[in-house]
Write a structure and sequence with these properties.
mainly alpha; 125 residues; 0% strand
Length: 125
C-alpha cells in the first residue's frame, strides 16, 4: 500500500471513530441498556477534557491529538485544534468562531454528563 492510501484509511478510521463516539455521547444516555457504558465513556471524556489541563491544556482529546498528528504528517493539518469546529467548517463551509464552538461544545458536554449521572443513578433505584 502506498503512503497516501494508508493515510486515507487512517483518516477515514479516525473520522468514523470520532463521529461514532460523538453520536454515542449525544444519544447513548437515552437507552437504559447503555447507561453504564455511556456514563463510563462520558467520564473518560470529561477526565481527558478537564482532568489533564496541566500537561495538555483544557479540552484535550486523544483522538483529535492522534488524528491531527496524522494529518500533519501528510501536510493537511487543520487550522483549528477543535474537532467539532473542524467538522462544522467542513460540513457547512462557514467560518465558525472557535471560541463560541468551544463554549457550546463544553456546555452541551457538561449538560449531557449531568443527565448521564442522573440517568445512571435512577437506573439503580
Amino acid at each position: 500500500m502506498k503512503n497516501r492510501q494508508i493515510y486515507h484509511l487512517l483518516n477515514c478510521a479516525l473520522h468514523s471513530l470520532h463521529l461514532g463516539y460523538i453520536t454515542f455521547f449525544l444519544i447513548g444516555w437515552l437507552f437504559p441498556a447503555t447507561h453504564i457504558l455511556h456514563f463510563s465513556l462520558s467520564t473518560l471524556m470529561i477526565v481527558f477534557w478537564y482532568g489533564l489541563p496541566g500537561q495538555y491544556g483544557a479540552g484535550f482529546c486523544p483522538l483529535t491529538h492522534i488524528h491531527w498528528k496524522i494529518k500533519d504528517r501528510y501536510d493537511q493539518k487543520p487550522e483549528t485544534k477543535l474537532y467539532i469546529k473542524y467538522m462544522l467548517d467542513k460540513a457547512i463551509r462557514e467560518g465558525f468562531n472557535e471560541r463560541k464552538v468551544n463554549y457550546m461544545t463544553n456546555a452541551i458536554a457538561i449538560g449531557i454528563y449531568i443527565i448521564s449521572i442522573i440517568k445512571l443513578m435512577l437506573s439503580f433505584l
